[in-house]
């Protein structure tokens, strides 16, 4: 595939609206439902209620109960029946209500969905999208702030993506639904209400590729690698760093499986320093894989080891102390300082 | 179902892991008796006939003559109950009924697992599991790579790779490296070296992979007085030319002891040069004695003996100054310390109650002490409670020294090299074996007279051991 | 079954079951269950003979597979010995447009769908993972994770409804197979919930062969399995799983109900796993000889043979011909299994994603290079 222009600005001027990320997803889902009658949405409370985050608001009214399906309270059932529907020829979009509740469906996702194309030698395609709101920072009670993306990115046969802006949310959800690969689609719930320009006329074919990383901010001194909710955090850190005379580059990974390594390597070879930022616990997280790969492929360019700023290796804490747990601007810049100490 | 028994190549002993089937002595369909030889196998040493483990009918042969098979792999299947009707696998006879196939088996004997049941042997040298072929044994052998010597070995034994020729290693598959403009490429350790040496990487031509700057490149750049137009590396007198060694372990302890001793006990050292020719001759006599045949004997042995005998005549030297109790503690036992240089530093292990040892026992103890010290395994108990020490500086060719007292001791003897020197012997100048003894002592306990007499006696023994023995005993 | 007033069925468990052919080969004209449904079959002589042929063939092929495993030609084999009637009876009840979701033991059902019997052997030999196109064969791929396929079956059935293909006699139905052990799995219970709530056109066919490896039925349930359906709001019926006629009758009726829009049914086929769970299991460790003996007397094939002989619908010549034909098929299967090629190493990297992945491409390229660096590889 030809290298996309990963420049910090979108390709064409957006004729767009200023929409929240949640609304952008809603619009993207609507477009997908319109474009393909085989697309169905299924999950708990997605129909009448429009979803606990209103992502599917208004869709059942327009597309009917057969296509926007309120399901029983059974995550394994949501994904398992989606497999059957996919064998039947449908393109199911499953919603798992919260990250912490995906685990009952884990068996169906990794033992069934992930393996089906491989084990059937290409005979069975499961064009399923599993949407999961994830991450912390909403002051929630237990099990509603998890970052389980690593479990899925680690599983061969699945593709995993995560949007960080309304612009990307709008196109990525459509691209995920349109592809025949099974996709786990992580939505940064703390960013659901943040607004940004969205090009509602974006043509999928020429939209930014689903699995390409994007340079969210160009820089020269160090590379910040982030995804989902942490992209904003990384951008804020870069803004603050500029005041200290440091010019940081921020890469939005967008795709966690596969990862757009050429984009990452290009950036690290330019700056010589890399810092990964993610909410998920650091031990054996996505950052560990990135660090290993960058070290192997950019060894001669490294001025310092790849550093990771992550959640601690503790269960996600109570709401009133979560700000201490989550990586923030200061922790990111502390890592940048340490990087320059080498 | 245990009716069909698979017979595995048995362990042929002597650590052999495989054997070649030379010839089958039976064929499929033959009826055999228990222990009847059924196959001839060649091991690395000999041709061996293998007897059948069961009686019955040969139902299948797994390995043809001429093949090599691993120990534990099945080689033949024997139908041990041919009268029970046709086998499902033979393809002959009527449809097996549910009865024959669902035959209820007696549970296997304790310990042994039937072939084909979980934990039992399975075809192909594997162990049966519930869900598949089961694990198999692997050997610790590499597959030969293209271009290695011995790669064209016989099929029987894969050639172990001994010294592979350097094959052009495939380039690590990575994203194509963009044309190098901009940042210098160098491994992190090389960057550090450059920084430590004050070299600007950008001024160094890289000869490494992908045009990176290597360690050699940096060191060469550092060695050049000037590169044209480049800033010369100025001579520095700082950390970059200094090595910092942390003080710990034996060295730390030794240093502490030295300081404590040197600055507590007023040290006086006296010297005596002696003609030890007779002692050297006595040493030869000792070596020739049968009881010393397998014991190493050295001049140090006689010096130690001299010291021990002299201590008997001057017991006060074997004492220590107790500041807490304001006492001098005179010891009846001599724990004779011998200073030893080890990899980790100087230690002074001692021979407990050396004064009670026979000459031979003393020789053995000295040898053991030195060996153990060299191996670094001297136990702490050996290094405590010393009362008097000898330091053999002679092994380094040094004449003598002013040794420092080990803590808690009041006298230490430096024994120098024994050298042929001109000496006045019976009124004439002769070449004699001469050495210098240096005795340091704690002047709080030992005054000049005592120290001198003690030293004189040591010298007397070494000058003429027989005469001293006769005089003293 | 009557309301417990009298036992129905010879050698029936407490509460009875639907039986139209006794272990001795006697016919029962019809059986009416407590909910008032009457089951019966009327087959032609040829149809009876064909059923017998199916049963014998399926058993013979299974025996050949067991032998192949013993000889190391298959890594594992899940024998259906004893369950032939449950599989042939239900399989023959399916209409061409119906879809079956098996576990990993339904080689008998596969046979009745007209599928080449060698199809699952790749899985058991370890040369592939048994992947075929479910839609081509109307028979899903084997599923090893216990019970996972019941959700797939339910989703598929929901799709049939969404396609408008239920509510009429030509509608499509789904049959989902699973064992007694699977009824404990959460996902199986979720499929009962979903199919009831969405009125899915699905028949849940439980082959209760009394054991899940070594765990007996009492480990999976306090009540007879067919009664679990009531809790989910749809009918459950227990049949003599060793009776091919009752199996056919009840399954056909349930499938027709489903395709007519009446929703799910649970069928419990009461049978027995005569062999081991899989090839290296040792049943003598957990069950006693007398139990196995008592089930031999209820053999599904011998009762049909007895019926055919008594009714003079077949003679020894016929039986011998059936055996011979089955053996021929088995030996042909054997030959084809023995010549199944091992997969090419580089095929490890095929079919991971429909749209591919640069990551997989890179790994494949490195692997090819690495393999070529060894002596004796076909670079």
Q: Describe it for me?
A:
- With 342 residues, chain A is of the alpha/beta class.
- Chain A has two domains: 205 residues, Thiamin diphosphate (ThDP)-binding fold, Pyr/PP domains (Rossmann fold, 3-Layer(aba) Sandwich), CATH 3.40.50.970; 127 residues, Rossmann fold (3-Layer(aba) Sandwich).
- Chain A has eleven helices and 14 strands.
- In chain A, the strands form three sheets. Chain A has a seven-stranded mixed β-sheet with strand order 3-2-4-5-7-6-12, sandwiched between helices. A five-stranded mixed β-sheet of chain A has the order 9-11-10-13-14, with helices on both faces. In chain A, strands 1-8 form a two-stranded antiparallel ribbon.
- In chain A, helix 7 links the parallel strand 10 and strand 11.
- The mean pLDDT of chain A is 95.
- In chain B, 22% of the residues lie in helices and 22% in strands.
- In chain B, strands 11, 14, 17, 18, 19, 20 and 21 form a seven-stranded mixed β-sheet that branches. Chain B has a four-stranded antiparallel β-sheet with strand order 1-8-6-3, with no helix packed on it.
- Chain C has two domains: 334 residues, 3-Layer(aba) Sandwich (Rossmann fold); 32 residues.
- In chain C, the strands form three sheets. Chain C has a five-stranded parallel β-sheet with strand order 3-4-5-9-8, sandwiched between helices. In chain C, strands 1-2 form a two-stranded antiparallel sheet.
- The longest helix of chain C is centred in the N-terminal third of the chain and has 26 residues.
- The N terminus of chain C is likely disordered.
- At the A-C interface, helix 3 and helix 4 of A face helix 5, helix 6 and helix 7 of C.
The percent range for helix content of chain B is 10-25%
Order of helices and strands of chain B: EEEEEEEEHEEHHHEHHEEEEEEHEEEEHH
Largest sheet of chain C, described in full?
A: 5 strands, parallel
Main interface: chain pair and counts? B-C, 45 and 51 residues
Helix content of chain C: 40-55%
Largest sheet of chain B: 7 strands, mixed
List the uncertain runs of chain B. Answer: 89-109, 150-180
Strand content of chain C: 5-15%
In what range is the share of β-strand residues of chain B?
A: 15-25%
Distance between the first and last residues' Cα of chain B: 91 Å
